[in-house]
Amino acid sequence: MREQESVEMVCAVFEISSSSYYEYCQRRHHIDVERVHLRSEVNRLFTLSRNSAGSRTLVDMLRELGYPVGRFKVRRLMKEAQLISKQPGSHHYKHATVERPDIPNHLNREFDVDAPNQVWCGDMTYVWAGQRWCYLAAVIDLFSRRVVGWAISEKPDAALVTKALSIAYEQRGRPQGVMFHSDQGSQYSSRQFRQHLWRYRMMQSMSRRGNCWDNAPMERLFRSLKTEWVPATGYTSLAEATRDISAYLMGYYNWERPHSHNNGISPAKAENRLNLLSGIS
């Protein structure tokens, strides 16, 4: 009785009804099963991204799974689960206007492509593995930004970029008439690489010297790989780096990670939707 009187007195001071207070107490003891499940999904997807996914990315991933959520709710769930994403800092590119005369910049930053296997982009980067630098070459299809070929080696030579190109060519069914764009690295202007382009009936395009914006989609891929996936201390061996990078490029990046270019859909799923629509029409 005394407890009830105390509650009524406190409620009167704060000008609220005692019934509202008791309803609030009941809600505190009620477990929102749906919210707990959604928070578990947010945690799972966040872990899948290696702590890199922000609220926008998680919203796209959840909607792809059929959850009608918005950024405000996802932010609240992330806060409840104490999830803080790894967001990269600002990135600055060099600028130049000198163009290689024998291999023009045919692409000219026209990054929006109508269909797969029209334009591929390639580039190289480096990662630390086994107490030394190793080198990664990748090829993406500009239509969906899907990784279609890649290779890793201890040497940054023409054989590395040629291997990545050959893998892409075979995996994509040996397409004809593809434009291949890259920066002006010596590997891409080598005789070995250019002979393979000629053999595959591909037209070569090169960025202006020192201008990374001309190959921005590749820059973004490597930036995502290094900020979202590669351990800060690098890998213990080339074999470990190969397995882990393969899991990112061919698994998480192609099939799971939402891409803004595809309106929040992963590259592989964006291509699958195109194939489905083409089959219907």
From TrEMBL:
- Recall the GO molecular function terms of this protein's record: nucleic acid binding
Domain Integrase catalytic residues, every copy: 112-275
Q: Which GO terms describe its biological process?
A: DNA integration
State the source organism's domain of life: Bacteria
Per UniProt, what is one Pfam family of this protein? rve
**PANTHER family linked to this entry:** TRANSPOSASE INSF FOR INSERTION SEQUENCE IS3B-RELATED, TRANSPOSASE INSO FOR INSERTION SEQUENCE ELEMENT IS911B-RELATED
Protein name per the record:
Putative transposase
Q: Give the source species.
A: Tolumonas osonensis
